[in-house]
């Protein structure tokens, strides 16, 4: 039996796919090559976009500092899954409260109100997968491009809230009034 071997460098494989109807769609994205965006509450670094996945999904890494979190909202277009790899994240979804720690996975179905907060004392870092893709357009439009990784998160301003709500409306994302405690 003869084995055919091939060697391809990472630079040569970027954006390449095998051809043919039965060939798998393989994508390689080197670490640190996706854009990063910041809001007053978190930072999100794109790992794979809908353009790279044929619209199947969007994947990013989120970093939320202690005490920060997002308000209640509903994704009307996509399901969202979090895989927490550092810190603690308290998630409210569908009337339930869950506290996730490293290694936990939370699947948030579309159409269900949810919010989260970092209730730990270190940054919460987690993968976010949204399916189908498209949520990345919200971050691109609402958040600020991160030029310097050491810079502080931007302040919460009326201008930011306007950007956020305008982008949310375009992406079928609905922000709700805060839940009273």
Notes on the structure:
The chain is α+β, with helices and mostly antiparallel strands. The protein has one domain: Jelly Rolls (Sandwich). The chain has helices at 10-13, 50-53, 135-142, 158-170; strands at residues 36-38, 43-48, 58-64, 69-75, 79-86, 88-93, 96-101, 105-108, 114-117, 124-131, 144-145, 173-175. Strands 8-5-10-3-2-1-11 form a seven-stranded antiparallel beta sheet. A five-stranded antiparallel beta sheet has the order 7-6-9-4-12, covered by helices on one side. α3 packs antiparallel against α4. The longest helix is centred in the last third of the chain and has 13 residues, at 158-170.
Uncertain segments: 1-18
CATH H-level superfamily: Jelly Rolls
- CATH domain fold name: Jelly Rolls
The proportion of residues in beta strands is 35-45%
Number of strands: 12
User: From the helix content, strand content and strand pairing, which structural class follows?
Assistant: alpha+beta
Under the CATH scheme, the architecture is Sandwich
Tell me the number of structural domains. 1
Largest sheet: 7 strands, antiparallel
Spatial extent as radius of gyration:
18 Å
Mean pLDDT: 85
**What top-tier CATH class fits best?**
Mainly Beta
Strand order of the largest sheet: 8-5-10-3-2-1-11
SSE ordering: HEEHEEEEEEEEHEHE
Which outline best applies? Answer: globular
Distance between the termini: 69 Å
Helix share bin:
10-25%
Number of helices: 4
């Amino acid at each position: 039996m003869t084995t055919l071997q091939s060697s391809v460098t990472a630079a040569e494989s970027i954006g390449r796919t095998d051809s043919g109807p039965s060939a798998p769609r393989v994508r390689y994205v080197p670490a640190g090559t996706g854009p990063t965006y910041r809001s007053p509450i978190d930072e999100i670094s794109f790992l794979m976009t809908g353009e790279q996945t044929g619209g199947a999904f969007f994947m990013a890494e989120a970093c939320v500092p202690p005490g920060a979190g997002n308000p209640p909202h509903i994704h009307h277009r996509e399901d969202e899954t979090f895989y927490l790899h550092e810190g603690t994240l308290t998630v409210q979804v569908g009337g339930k409260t869950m506290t996730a720690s490293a290694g936990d996975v939370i699947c948030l179905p579309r159409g269900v109100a949810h919010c989260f907060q970092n209730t730990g004392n270190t940054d919460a870092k987690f993968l976010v997968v949204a399916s189908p893709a498209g949520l990345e357009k919200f971050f691109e439009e609402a958040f600020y491009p991160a030029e310097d990784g050491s810079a502080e998160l931007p302040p919460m301003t009326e201008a930011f809230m306007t950007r956020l709500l305008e982008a949310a409306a375009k992406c079928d994302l609905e922000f709700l009034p805060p839940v009273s405690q």
